Amino acid sequence: MKKRFAPKWKIKKGDKVKVLAGEYKGTESEVLHVFPEQGRVLVDDVNMVKKHQKPTNDHPGGIIEQPAPINISNVMLIDSKSGEATRVGRRVEDGKLVRYSKKTGETIK
Q1: Could you say which DSSP state residue 97 is in?
Q2: Which end of the chain is more exposed for a tag (fewer CB within 10 A), N or C?
Q3: Digit-coded pLDDT (tens) for 17-57
Q4: What pairs with residue 64 in β-bridges?
């Protein structure tokens, strides 16, 4: 059965996040990519896996390390003002829907 709509996630590409669970718990890093259909995010230097790369004209090949996606529920946005992890809400300002920090009430970029 197909869903009627994809949920609106509160984490976006470029956000600084803190990992809440797993091997990399407590790590603060930047979101590289969001996969909304799967509910996963790719975070820089988190959940590193080894990949065997075949040689090409551009790359010599060998075993490379790259980040793998983690569940979006395992990350929390870091507020740029306070530097602490915060929950995110949405509200209408000037006719536009914007994200805001629930901890400080400040609008997030």
Answers
A1: E
A2: N
A3: 999 999 999 999 999 999 988 999 999 999 999 999 999 99
A4: 51
Count the alpha carbons within 13 Å of 63 in the hemisphere toward its beta carbon: 3
Structure token pair of residue 64: 């490379």
CA–CA separation, 65 and 83 (whole Å): 29
Task: Give first-to-last CA distance, the chain, whole Å.
Answer: 36
CA distances in angstroms from 43 to 15, 77, 89, 94, listed in the order given: 10, 12, 21, 32
Q: Give the integer Cα–Cα distance in Å for 78 and 30.
A: 10
Give every CB contact of residue 78 below 8 A, 6+ residues apart in sequence.
15, 16, 17, 18, 28, 84, 85, 86
Name the pTM for this structure: 0.83
